[in-house]
Amino acid sequence: MVSEAVIRVRGLKTQFGTQVVHEDLDLDVQRGEILGVVGGSGTGKSVLMRAILGLLSPHAGSVDVLGETVTGRRDPVKLRRRTGVLFQDGALFSSLTVLENVEVPLKEHFPELSAQLRGDLARLRLRLVGLAPGTGAKLPSELSGGMRKRAGLARALAMDPELLFLDEPTAGLDPIGAADFDELLKTLQQALGLTVFLITHDLDTLYAICDRIAVLGKGRILTVGTREEVEDFDDDWIRDYFHGPRARSARAAQRRGGD
Ligand SMILES: Nc1ncnc2c1ncn2[C@@H]1O[C@H](COP(=O)(O)OP(=O)(O)OP(=O)(O)O)[C@@H](O)[C@H]1O
């Protein structure tokens, strides 16, 4: 298979005031892969995602997504139509029903759609993420944490995107809820041919569904590759993270799942 970088970051520098978050960061995300992005707290994973999405202007470097240059553009609308995002806090609009939440991107990008068609498309997305038909009429506050994540995912998939960005999607879920969400993500990624940029702290997620892992540290990508490649990289944080007790139990769980 010939690999094709659908996200290409070169020489990225981001900074807030005097605090430099990224310096000379390079990263490629290949079409059809799930790339897991890990790194210590505050290493700039969310900022990197926002830079790729064109939500903040870097101080230097370039970002290309699906062949379009993001850097220097004020509002990459065309790109926003082709990408779905689930932010860390999930942020559903609390005063809208679940169905109305999923309809928001459709309304924004296709205002000419009839209410009937928009509703049908949104209901389809809810079915895709495994939510029962009655869920659409509920308010986010009436859902469990896991259901809210699924609703957020349905909204991220509203525009039938090629690229999906997820910032810690399993944070706050119990282990079974998190494993169910991982499985859903993998199934949807394969069925819809998605490329996924996935920020996570969750080793189970990394081991269960990611094709490659990128480790952020010291303002750049320390290493990127398959799990085995990354685990072997000589760095203190990587050693603690991938060879600590939590990693051992995640590996054991994956082996049990594979039997
Ligand atoms: N809008 C902002 N203004 C000022 N500083 C910011 C802003 N956004 C992020 N930062 C800083 O940039 C650094 C990286 O933040 P980021 O949220 O990307 O970290 P992270 O790796 O995602 O962390 P975590 O794993 O804890 O979520 C942090 O020091 C943060 O305080």
Automatic annotation (TrEMBL):
Gene3D superfamilies: P-loop containing nucleotide triphosphate hydrolases
Statement: the UniProt record of this protein carries the keyword Transport: yes
Keywords: ATP-binding, Nucleotide-binding, Transport
Domain ABC transporter: 7-243
Protein name (Swiss-Prot/TrEMBL): ATP-binding cassette domain-containing protein
GO molecular function, one term: ATP hydrolysis activity
SUPFAM superfamilies according to UniProt: P-loop containing nucleoside triphosphate hydrolases
Keyword Signal among UniProt keywords: no
Family matches, as Pfam families: ABC_tran
